[in-house]
From TrEMBL:
Belongs to the beta-class carbonic anhydrase family. Zn(2+) binds at residues 590, 592, 651, 654. It is a multi-pass membrane protein. The keyword Transcription does not apply. This is carbonic anhydrase. It catalyses: hydrogencarbonate + H(+) = CO2 + H2O. Its main location: membrane. It is found in: Membrane. GO terms for cellular component: membrane. Residues 17-367 form the SLC26A/SulP transporter domain. Its cofactor is Zn(2+). The keyword Kinase does not apply.
Length: 758
């Protein structure tokens, strides 16, 4: 539902009244004190913050690209606005806001909004943290009864003198406000009233009762006190830079908040170009009416979503409530002590230094960008700090792109292993050649190239070393699990794209089909072809060749191959799930060695909780002989792991079903187990013959899957969840010869469609 809909259904109106109207009231209660505080921090008239709140709510809310985002004056822009007010005056700042809005309109029309997502979050969070520090330091002086200085450094230097001076009333009201902000949200019964509103109300009431000598908010005339914009006077280069800075900072903050809002609701996904256009309209109108710059605000958006908003009506109505409140009750705002607003801003500034972001950035090694940006914003300025942060982020990105690791070590008698990981460019050639120089002549070298790029300089250095090493009697076995950069360079092939996905020509093959890469080199000649040879020698990449049997397959050799090739790729994933598993499916299938669940479902570690037995049988509840193993697995998956789907997967040519059709082998345990398949056999016998080409065995294999789904529902806890819609049962059938998965139910036998691209 959008504001522009010509007709709104009765059901949608009920949703608006039940969800969006209450949410809008909650956001309104949060927006008023924050708007007042940001106006004070920006050096603007107090009414300007309320104008921006109204315009941001009504205009940006109605036209924006997110159904839950709430726009208004943002604390992150307060430093820029304060500097503009000091340089050009308030009315000229309004004109700059209008021009910034028009620029955002142009950028929205050019559909460049997604370019904002290319800005490193470390820079954005560092900028906001720096702004928070500057706001906190400046407002701390007001709380202490003094006046803020021109820079953060001066505020720090003047702080001892402010603390030593006696400003009893100001300090007490500030401490009271901060105390309420800290305690209010921790008391569940009080959370209905937002903490900022409660803190200002208590501060105003205390000031009125005690008669303390405090500075009150000046809101004489309400909205009638605001003045329109005038053109700024001065260097037009500086004015153009200010317009660009306001437009970009407000736009980036709005778009990042818009992206974050997608995680807060299940409604339509955000349209970033529409959001940027809406922000442009809102800023142009806010500046024309004498308001602060407008941006999407994280605090209000989060509050809106958590309060239950489902459509953009909540954001629009919150702006209407601000308008009505200011028009009718402006006198109430004049009762708020300015020191209480300063304490609120001090609290907000400290909260803007979000340690949660620091922890997230640490795992990606982006903490230097965060802290350098924050320090530069505090010590130099907002624009300069952002520029420095962006430059550092770009340098670190280039460093990561050019990063390469070379590990050369001796693995046995006259055997060495060299592992090269990363992007092998001319920058990494010195490190590569230094490592290769330490390898003795004439030894066997396993060279693993885990590369996502190799340039010509690196190839020439590596290939020259290989030729020299082989000339002196050495042997080099080259393997490239992630992309054949070296082989392609030898063959004169140009790879597209620059970064290619990992190869999948080894890990899924049975041991008997694998060939050591050195044999492949020998078969392909000195050119170094890396194609998998077909059985007829034709070189088809998709037909593997069966090697001659050479004794029992070595399980430990396979384990060593996992440690060597696969473990480095999956280690980070497994590390995150080492303490807890959260599978979504219980997958019940046959113990047949040809069925590999993770292959036929393209799943990975942590996806499937797997139960395997002969015939993929599920004994009915209370069956004789009893089988607690299967029941325990199902019980644990459903009640502890909270899986939402149970899949039974049968397959063609099942030996257990063949035994049911013929004579069960003289194996006591197997004979006892296959008693649980008698219902499947009876169902098969009672069924009418099918018109398909499948023989009796495969038809029984399919029937068995359907019967096991019924057997699952004989377990009361499974049946209860299925009836409640909290658990789904699904049947699959794998045709081994055709490598084809089919979906089974009582009415249909449907091949799973292939996903085609292009």
């Amino acid at each position: 539902m959008t504001i522009s809909d010509d007709a709104v259904s009765l059901r949608n109106w009920k949703s608006v009244l039940r969800r969006d109207v209450p949410a809008s009231l909650v956001v309104f209660l949060v927006a008023v004190p924050l708007s007042l505080g940001i106006a004070v921090a920006s050096g603007a008239p107090v009414a300007a913050g309320l104008v921006a709140a109204v315009v941001g709510g009504v205009v940006a809310g109605a036209l924006g690209g997110s159904v839950v985002q709430v726009s208004g004056p943002a604390a992150g822009l307060s430093l820029v606005v304060a500097e503009l007010v000091h340089t050009y005056g308030w009315r000229a700042t309004c004109a700059i806001t209008v021009m910034a809005g028009l620029l955002q309109l142009v950028l929205g029309g050019l559909k460049v909004a997604r370019a904002a997502l290319g800005v490193s979050p470390a820079v954005v969070h560092g900028m906001l943290a720096g702004v928070g520090v500057v706001i906190a330091l400046s407002q701390l002086h007001i709380v202490l009864g003094g006046a803020p200085q021109r820079s953060a450094l001066e505020n720090v230097l003047e702080l001892p003198a402010q603390i030593l001076d006696n400003h009893t009333h100001a300090v007490m009201i500030g401490v009271l406000t901060i105390g309420v902000l800290l305690v209010w949200g921790r008391i569940p019964r009080l959370r209905t009233v937002p903490a900022p509103l409660a803190a200002l109300m208590i501060a105003a009431l205390t000031a009125a009762v005690t008669g303390w000598d405090l500075t009150k908010v000046d809101l004489k005339g309400g909205f009638s006190s605001v003045q329109g914009p005038v053109m700024p006077q001065g260097d037009w280069h500086a004015i153009a830079g200010a317009v660009l800075l306001v437009a970009l900072l407000a736009g980036v903050e709005s778009l990042l908040t818009c992206v974050a809002s997608n995680r807060l609701h299940d409604g339509p996904r955000a349209d970033l170009d529409r959001e940027l256009t809406a922000q442009g309209v809102a800023n142009a109108l806010s500046g024309a009416l004498g308001g602060l710059p407008v941006a999407g605000v994280v605090v209000r958006t989060t509050t809106n979503a958590r309060a239950g908003a489902r459509s953009r009506w909540s954001a629009v109505l919150h702006g209407v409530w601000v308008l009505l409140f200011t028009t009718a009750f402006a006198w109430m705002i004049t009762l708020i002590p300015l020191e209480a607003l300063a304490a609120l801003l001090l609290f907000i500034g400290v909260q803007m230094v979000n340690l949660g972001h620091v922890r997230n950035l640490r795992s990606h090694r982006e903490m230097p960008v965060y802290f350098v940006t924050m320090a530069a914003v505090v010590l130099i300025g907002l624009a300069e700090g952002v520029a420095i942060g962006l430059g550092l982020a770009a340098l670190l990105a280039l460093r990561r792109l050019a990063w390469v690791s070379v590990d050369a070590r001796e693995t046995g008698e006259r055997r060495w292993r060299v592992v090269v990981t990363g992007s092998l460019t001319f920058l990494g050639v010195p490190r590569l050649t230094e490592a290769l120089r330490g390898i003795p002549a004439g030894v066997v070298v396993e060279l693993d190239l885990h590369l996502d790029f190799m340039d010509n300089a690196a190839f020439e250095a590596l290939h020259a070393w290989r030729l020299e090493h082989e000339r002196t009697g050495g042997v080099i076995d080259v393997d490239e699990p992630h992309g054949e950069w070296y082989a392609a360079a030898i063959n004169g092939v140009r790879l597209f794209p620059a970064r290619i996905p990992p190869r999948h020509d080894r890990w899924w093959l049975p041991w008997a089909y694998r060939r050591h890469s050195r044999r492949m080199d020998a078969a392909a000649g000195d050119a170094g072809s890396y194609a998998v040879l077909s059985a007829d020698g034709g070189g088809h990449d998709d037909v593997p060749v069966l090697c001659e049997p050479q004794g029992m397959p070595d399980l430990m050799e396979g384990t060593r191959e996992f440690q060597r090739r696969t473990a480095p790729m999956v280690r980070s994933v497994l590390h995150r799930m080492a303490r807890k598993q959260s599978p979504s499916h219980l997958f019940i299938t046959c113990a047949d060695s040809r069925i590999v669940p993770n292959i036929i479902t393209a799943s990975g570690p942590g996806d499937l909780f797997t139960l395997r037995n002969i015939g993929n049988l599920v004994p009915r509840a209370g069956a004789v002989p009893a089988d607690d193993s299967v029941a325990a697995t199902i019980e644990y998956a459903v009640k502890v792991l909270d899986v939402r789907m149970i899949t039974v997967c049968g397959h063609s040519g099942c030996g257990a079903m063949a035994a049911l059709l013929g004579e069960v082998p003289d194996l006591p345990a197997l004979r006892s187990w296959l008693r649980h398949g008698r219902q499947s056999l009876a169902r098969f016998v009672a069924a009418e013959s099918c018109d398909d080409d499948a023989g009796p065995l495969d038809r029984l294999c399919r029937t068995n899957v359907i019967q096991q789904l019924d057997n699952l529902r004989t377990h009361p806890f499974v049946d209860t969840l299925v009836r409640a819609g909290e658990l789904e049962l699904m049947g699959l059938y794998f045709d081994i010869g055709a490598a084809r998965v089919h979906l089974l139910d009582r009415e249909r036998f449907t091949p799973v469609p292939e996903l085609r691209t292009g």
